TrEMBL record:
Pfam families: JHBP. It comes from the Eukaryota. InterPro entries: Haemolymph_juvenile_hormone-bd (IPR010562), To_sf (IPR038606). This is Uncharacterized protein.
Length: 183
């Protein structure tokens, strides 16, 4: 099951941040630790707090962004490593009937997360200009905190799509009556 694979994610953080990643592989999910879980079947909500030492996201990127006031453009392989992320996932689920059984589905979800550090490696930036690519990656990594504050929302959207995929896969195969203890 590792890596966890996602075919494509489009992330838009306003006018200044657009990135599309394809053929994404997420490593580290199997090492995730559950910190807290709160399930409310009446409201149909779940809150999960998770942590992991390292979450590694790789794939092919196409970016057009302005980070640290620098325009960044390119297409190619990318790797984003998040060190010690603590992720709080909140989901509201709905119910649907299928073949006489009731199943859950993700209705709304969001993710907030904080990290100890991040590393970015975007290859082939600026049409393969090696010097600009090296310097841009160096600048991104030296200023990872500022970069993280700029991109945490769009990256969070990508992470929430992974979590939604995992939970929806469970919802699709296990009828709702077997998922939770009901009053």
């Amino acid at each position: 099951m590792m890596p966890f694979k996602i075919s494509s994610v489009n992330v838009h953080g306003g006018e200044n941040f657009k990135i599309k990643m394809d053929d994404i592989e997420v490593w580290g999910i199997d090492k995730t630790k559950l910190v807290d879980i709160d399930i409310n079947t009446f409201r149909r909500t779940i809150k999960i707090v998770l942590t992991v030492d390292i979450l590694n996201i790789g794939g092919t990127y196409d970016i057009d962004a302005r980070i640290l006031v620098l325009p960044i453009r390119g297409k190619g392989p990318a790797n984003i490593t998040l060190h010690k992320p603590v992720m709080t996932y909140v989901q509201e689920w709905g119910l649907k009937e299928l073949n006489g059984e009731i199943y859950g589905y993700t209705k709304n979800s969001k993710l907030a997360y904080d990290i100890e550090r991040a590393e970015y490696n975007f290859q082939n930036l600026f049409n393969g200009n090696e010097r600009l690519g090296i310097e841009t990656n160096r600048l991104l990594n030296e200023n990872w905190g500022v970069v993280h504050s700029d991109v945490s929302s769009p990256v969070g959207q990508a992470i929430v799509s992974v979590v939604d995929s995992i939970i929806d896969a469970i919802y699709e195969v296990i009828p709702y009556k077997y998922l939770f203890i009901h009053d």
